[in-house]
Sequence to fold (181 residues):
Amino acid sequence: MYIGDVGSRGLHHLVWEVVDNSIDEAMAGYCKKIIVTILEQAGVRIEDDGRGIPVDINKKEGKSGLELVMTVLHAGGKFDKDTYKVSGGLHGVGVSVVNALSKKCNVIIKRDGKITTQSYQYGKAITEVKEIGETGETGTAVTFYPDETIFNEIKYSFDIIDERMRELAYLNSGISIKLID
Fold:
């Protein structure tokens, strides 16, 4: 299993997978701010000001880069070197596993002057990738609600997440990580 187990450790690993994508953006020099919000009804939102997942249609697959990253394991390898760099396979494995293990998930991308979104249930797209506005900002926001039929208990520990975010902030100078409960 990609997340280790279906207990607390695996549940928190879902958060780490998405946050690690933002950290990759920071390490590449494209992200300075990450916000992790623990939501009601066992949801989590991770937002960053990185480049945003590509939403262009992948010519080989005939689907948006966003949909590929969110629904296909190892999709990160489908991006050429000029489109989007993938460190450690996280975009393409981690976030697709988070999506697959969530009863619902939504992604909002700010990239190339546009705000784009797509929603998912149980790992499958339930909406098309659609443009919902314009912006001068960049970034990715992933909101997910883990599937309670998979996990033993869906209860996040603020202390566990806080400790991990503090470690990441310490190890990655120049990045601001904010945790909201």
Q: What stands out?
A: Residues 77-92 have pLDDT under 50 and may be disordered. The beta strands are 33-38, 44-48, 57-58, 63-64, 102-111, 114-121, 124-125, 130-134, 139-146, 176-180.
